[in-house]
Amino acid sequence: xxxxxxxxxxxxxxxxxxxxxxxxxxxxxxxxxxxxxxxxxxxxxxxxxxxxxxxxxxxxxxxxxxxxxxxxxxxxxxxxxxxxxxxxxxxxxxxxxxxxxxxxxxxxxxxxxxxxxxxxxxxxxxxxxxxxxxxxxxxxxxxxxxxxxxxxxxxxxxxxxxxxxxxxxxxxxxxxxxxxxxxxxxxxxxxxxxxxxxxxxxxxxxxxxxxxxxxxxxxxxxxxxxxxxxxxxxxxxxxxxxxxxxxxxxxxxxxxxxxxxxxxxxxxxxxxxxxxxxxxxxxxxxxxxxxxxxxxxxxxxxxxxxxxxxxxxxxxxxxxxxxxxxxxxxxxxxxxxxxxxxxxxxxxxxxxxxxxxxxxxxxxxxxxxxxxxxxxxxxxxxxx
Length: 384
Prior knowledge:
Helix 1 packs antiparallel against helix 4 (44-59), helix 2 (14-26) packs antiparallel against helix 6 (87-112) and helix 13 packs across helix 17 (365-378). The longest helix is centred in the middle third of the chain and has 32 residues, at 116-147. Strands 1, 2, 3, 4, 5 and 6 form a six-stranded mixed sheet that branches. The protein is of the alpha+beta class. The two termini are 47 Å apart. The protein has 17 helices and six strands. The protein is 62% helix and 8% strand.
């Protein structure tokens, strides 16, 4: 009965617990996998399954048995192996979630006045069930990884990665002209392959494509002149694939082949987070860099967003004013018209903002705009 009363208290906090657990899990990052952002986006449904397992573990301790392992968590372990998320990262995420769950359990047990003996039983049951879960997750992950044997696609992937690393590969194994002009693309999601192949059909372009085990598509379009691959990039921007797709810049030769790919890889987080699902490195190189550099991103937030948050409205009006001002190319009258206020109001706001930031906007406009873009990408859908 005491265990049921405890889990009843925990269930009352379910929504908050799910949010807190998801934040704790997302704080454990595996930057080695290009599918990290997409993988994290798929974790939300599994948090609820993990909570139910924890509740059941506490409630069933009196019966002397652990609850059934949730299929969702085992499937997610396989998904992690397939997307090359490291097992260490998977296990660290589970440990982080378990730490938060046990902290909450202690808090609610104290509020309930649960006897120490009952609390120890709940802890023991939870620990046994958690150890069993970690063992099952590890086994499922390793089984999925082992099933990924050698294949032609993996052989091509190995050659491509060796080339990207600077090695020279002899022979026509990849059937691609590396001396040509190239356009690198990286895509993730349904329809990515069809979208890329569609573009090649628009003109005389060679295609090198690799479907990786992590679900990310690497592709290069090759052509004899720069104009041909640049035209393919324009055609691509008009497509609406059911995927997140990032594009590098046209570049020539083997060094250019590597460079345009690196640009596309760097732009993928922007494609995944952006509303359109499409991102070009050249459109926002500073923003792309910030998304891949925690130091730069956190510094931009601290320098150009944190001071605005000190306003009574949390900086909402200031950010709205800045976005309108930059969208208008720095024209105060146009910004005022866009916001439906008079010119003096915008001017006054800009002066106040410069005072908050301690710098002139025209001296740091690129940095401020990048900080605003980061802020917009981090907001929930529909929130300005």
